Amino acid sequence: MKHTVFSADFDLLQHVSPAALPTAHLPALDLDLVDATPDQAISHLLSPGRRRAFFMNAHCCNLRRRNARYAQAVARADVLLPDGIGVELAAKMTGQKLTANLNGTDLVPLLLAKAARMGKSVYLFGGTPGTADGAAAKLIHSIPGLRIAGTSNGFSDAADAEAVIADINGSGADIVLVALGVPLQEVWLDNHAHRLNASLTLAVGALFDFLAGSVVRAPKLVRRAKMEWAWRLAQEPRRLAKRYLAGNVAFLTHAALRAAAQTPVADVQRRFLDITVSATALLLLSPLLGLTALAIKADSRGPVFFKQTRVGLNGKPFTILKFRSMSTDAEARRAAVLASSDRDGVCFKSRTDPRVTRVGRFIRRFSIDELPQILNVLRGEMAVVGPRPALPCEVEAYPEHAMGRLAVKPGITGVWQVSGRATIGFDRMVEMDLSYAASRTLMLDLMLILRTFGAVASGRGAY
Description:
The chain is an alpha/beta fold. It has helices at residues 38-46, 58-66, 68-76, 85-92, 104-117, 131-142, 161-171, 184-192, 207-212, 220-224, 228-235, 237-261, 265-284, 286-299, 334-337, 358-365, 373-378, 392-396, 426-439, 442-458, and strands spanning 23-26, 31-34, 51-56, 79-82, 121-126, 147-152, 175-179, 200-203, 305-311, 317-323, 383-385, 411-413. α2 crosses α3 and α11 (228-235) runs antiparallel to α12.
């Protein structure tokens, strides 16, 4: 293995100035979690001062509800870092989106790489006999200049807390990683961290096992799909079945009930409608989605999906998904066709847009290109019903009163979409959207969903 395994792009971390670490309160979990990039989190953790940091995932949240001593330790930690897809989903239940998944397996090696450049040393405490030593060897090999101050295992060595504390302090370690498993590691640090000379202590769970190679981490593709928990379950089904199957259901149920209790009834009803309609549509339309993807690939070069930044609720950007209906150089050619817009005002639309492909004209005529936005709805970035999602450049050109469109989630369908789409000018579209935002009800949403079928069939304004 090369020495650069954990060092790519680490120089960027050196340029982040220590600052107050952004946090977000998640009502669904009743927790204040770090809402920052990995760079920001690492700079804060390694800045002057004493800190105790814990990682919080779905399993940790379940234990926190049942184990009063662990809950007490969590409440007294200095930094709580969001870990895993469960926490991300809990945030979305109340319309929040955390900046990054700061899991220990990814974050700690990055942190240690910067610590090495700062001349800091680390002590590894925990794991089965030999595991901390194996993890230390891997870190030394992977991170140039890293100093391992010492190691202790989590079995025979851990039985004598006084001896472990003395060994850590005698080593002169600046950072202590404790891997005794949840909740033992957090409770141990809550009991003893104040007696350690190290400025930073972290509870790191199974990190030593991953580093030492005794547990194989999921491939990158599985991690990108946010299914690492399923990989772990497949590796150790007997030990982890209760945690990942029953535990995940309990976690999401509890988070959903907390989120619902703190959300207006109308918002809960509307979100239920969004999930029900979009999930049903995804299931029923899956053959059409597959055929459309094949047609796009056969018609022109390029990806099946078109991804673009749009402006969502309260001006927050998100990535919209559509079937690609234009040539791959469409964005570069946009400026050249702006003069051919058929619509007055900010939003561009042209019936004769030369960038649209043959398949693109067909799927636009029947609004098939919009169907991947079902995934945006399921992710909570859009609603089934709402204003057309705007481009950032369009929002920059908005007159002040038009900003009211951003007070509700953008939608796949809405008043503008069922009333003529591109045949309606910008000012009239804004009036429609502001009126909807001020008077929307569940019944109105249902009526607009029903009217969408007629609008699609007529094809009016769809090009």
